[in-house]
Specification:
2 copies of one chain form a homodimer. By secondary structure, the first copy, chain A, is α/β, with parallel strands linked by helices. The first copy, chain A, has helices at 37-42, 83-86, 128-131, 134-146, 162-172, 185-192, 221-228, 250-254, 267-275, 294-301, and strands at 3-6, 10-13, 25-35, 51-52, 56-61, 70-73, 76-77, 97-98, 111-115, 119-121, 154-158, 177-181, 198-199, 209-214, 229-237, 244-248, 258-261, 285-290, 308-312.
Chain lengths: 315, 315
Amino acid sequence: MNALVFDGKLKLDRDYPTPHAPAGESLVRVLRAGICSTDLEIIKGYMGFRGVLGHEFVGIVEDGEMRGARVVGEINAYDGTCSTCRRGDVTHCPNRSTLGIMNRDGALAEYLTLPARNLHRVPDAVSDAQAAFTEPLAAACEITYRVHIRPTDRVCVLGDGKLGLLCAQVLHLTGCDLLAVGRHADKLMILKMRGIPTTTDPDSIRGTFDVVVECTGQASGFELARQLLRPRGTLVLKSTFHGAQEMPFAPIVIDEISIVGSRCGPFAPALRLLEKNLIDVDSMVSAEYLIARGVEAFQAAATPGMLKVQITMSQ
Amino acid sequence: MNALVFDGKLKLDRDYPTPHAPAGESLVRVLRAGICSTDLEIIKGYMGFRGVLGHEFVGIVEDGEMRGARVVGEINAYDGTCSTCRRGDVTHCPNRSTLGIMNRDGALAEYLTLPARNLHRVPDAVSDAQAAFTEPLAAACEITYRVHIRPTDRVCVLGDGKLGLLCAQVLHLTGCDLLAVGRHADKLMILKMRGIPTTTDPDSIRGTFDVVVECTGQASGFELARQLLRPRGTLVLKSTFHGAQEMPFAPIVIDEISIVGSRCGPFAPALRLLEKNLIDVDSMVSAEYLIARGVEAFQAAATPGMLKVQITMSQ
């Protein structure tokens, strides 16, 4: 099958072996998959991953009870039996593999396998292009899963990339006093069209937010996020990137801020939000490529100003 | 009056002007004051403070309605009118001064002034030596104020200095599954005598704690604290110190940990715990000096292995 493989270098492999689903797993024929910033970090060395890239997809189940169903899939395959899983923290299972990120081939290929229990049927009202946003939208829903966002809170989303735009839209629905801070008027326009206040100049609003969500994808975003927070505020860290950052600790203690790391999220609420058309993902698709042009698609995705690039497996 | 003053160098000033209480403040004759690790950081440059050091004290009110009362005092003088104060976060008032730490002369002198509303009467059952622990014990109580510690939680206190010993004793009272990690068998013995499990070797218990309280006072403590946490666990940062620390961000996001900064705490519960003899502070007094020997007292306090050094103002 065709697959986009990273083995130290990104390449299209036209003869990658089609996977066989082990017991408990399903074979899924991929219809469409998105390129995520995490994929761009992986080809810079993040996670030390080797194999088929991609973890945002929609596809058709080829076997088992769900055969023929159009599905999306949670990306962490967990054992379900360890103490972490039994506590309910299955996305943190120490024995997990993660689609296209850790010890498991990903979705930028004609076929993938995932445990059947990871798959969710896609409502008819949700298009393929929309469904491929379920995974990053779930990651945005992880914010409200992890942190109690009050409708009275003053909330800032810092960063107008793909994840920032999704986080801002999810938080907007809480009724909170939201401001999105970014650098790109065209990207912020997607939020403005939904009635979300935006700014490109955060200098005058430091120290005023109950919650700041850091989605810049850059280590330097942390310090600005911290400065935007009020004392005892909560800084939600969404960005994953390769490398470390020099950080002064004293202000965290003196201002008694909380920092909450947030990663993969719940799929069911993300699918509900898409089905009810409460999140605009259509405006976020910048380009679409056939998998045969997948390397070019990655180059496009890494271009400043681009939002989501999606890859289709056949015409 | 006698005062221990830091003006780039620590010195005893025998002719420091006795303060006059402005409107709303009380003059307090200091009986006894403790030296805190923060004081040792200040004379290394932390906070850029100049003036009379010290913020842990017990004294007698010399004027006003509380005249003659034996009191301890909350160290942050706040305006009470700004939005931060009206939200209840008075210890974060942007216009605050802080006793012996920021824009306000401290307690290592014969007299100090504080707003009358900052003072708390000391119960008769609490000795002067014990009462001078109210401020750091309140800082330990700030952990349970800021973070919900469940009696089922597995909790680690990292660091067996003065603050670590107080934090461990407060957390022990929640009924949680507590382990204190330190480097000094003699200091940990204070906890062992209260029935608190201790260890000097945390290597085999990484990844197992719901909550880790970082009290090492060293930047390097953060990384060990993080490694001791389970995914989605909570790291409470108590240490304040001069300087920054290189920190990898990805593990915070991947493991979805929470980091909670914690500083000054509530005095009323600290006084209740002392009155009911639920916390052993007597074992933590390593030495006592007259203020005339205050510089020597600071040298002693900075000696490895020392716990609390207290200073009395007269014999």
